Amino acid sequence: MEAAKASDAMVRRQAAEVLGRSRNPAAVPALEGLLGDSAAIVRATACEALGVQRSRPSVPKLSKVLTGDSDPRVRQAAAIAFVYIGDPAATGPLIGALRDGSAPVRHAAMRALGKLRAAGAVGALASVLSDTDPSARKVAVASLGEIASKEGIPALSSALSDTDAGVRAEAAKSLGLIADPSAGPALTAALKDADMGVRVQAATALAKTGDLSGLPVVYGVLKSPEAAARQQAAAAVGLIGDAKGAAALKAARAVEKDAGVQGLMDLALVQIRARLGLSEKAPAKKIPSPKKPVKPWGKTPVKKAAR
Length: 307
What we know:
Elements: H1 9-21, H2 28-34, H3 40-52, H4 59-68, H5 72-85, H6 91-97, H7 103-115, H8 122-127, H9 134-147, H10 153-159, H11 165-178, H12 184-190, H13 196-208, H14 215-221, H15 227-240, H16 243-255, H17 259-276
Helix pairs in contact: 1-2, 1-3, 2-3, 3-5, 4-5, 4-6, 5-7, 6-7, 7-9, 9-11, 10-11, 11-13, 12-13, 13-14, 13-15, 14-15, 15-17, 16-17
């Protein structure tokens, strides 16, 4: 631990990494001391190391770093450390960090709240959906899905009308994680979305609530000219498709030219057959027709002379 007091900042940083990997609780005081180091890189590494240590007693000091450190990289490292520590006590400081002046810090805080499944953060995350940055809105809806609280359904349903297709698709996916029938009307409307990815996610989310009305939409996307869309549809059929889906997937696989899509379709076919208990019919064997006996070459039968 003497290296943590070295005059060289890089030596102190390396010491913090070693102390974190040691998983030795006795190293925690030294790491907490490095949270006040003069070098930002050392402070950030100390945050990461305390996360690796899963040090719950360090949550108050990491909270102060999250809200008060002058360097956004250090504040971001503190937010990420809370994911590894997994202490709900970090919810309050993380909600406060949603107002941080640095976008990476705000994004890290949102992701951490999702990983912690912090139900108390639903309202704060919902407020981010008015942010002008689509990437922030996308992270917010993803975290609401991880929290999986029914309180987030109104905000996620509203996000299905977002101007950004990525946000809409993520909102549908998150509603699928919550899997509550009350989101049915909004998801049904999303089946007509202009973006194929949104339609597939909406159909998948509906299926998770027991509503299979969106399956034909997914089967239609199997014929999309876009390989990525066909891949997404194939994956969805493997998870939620019925017997008709198995037939549609098999037909799509027969004409698929893209090797990457072919592989995913093959995997999806295995999944859906296993899930539905379907057996793959082996091709019928062609029975060869009986051959006429061939006369030996060069040997002509000799007719017996009549007596």
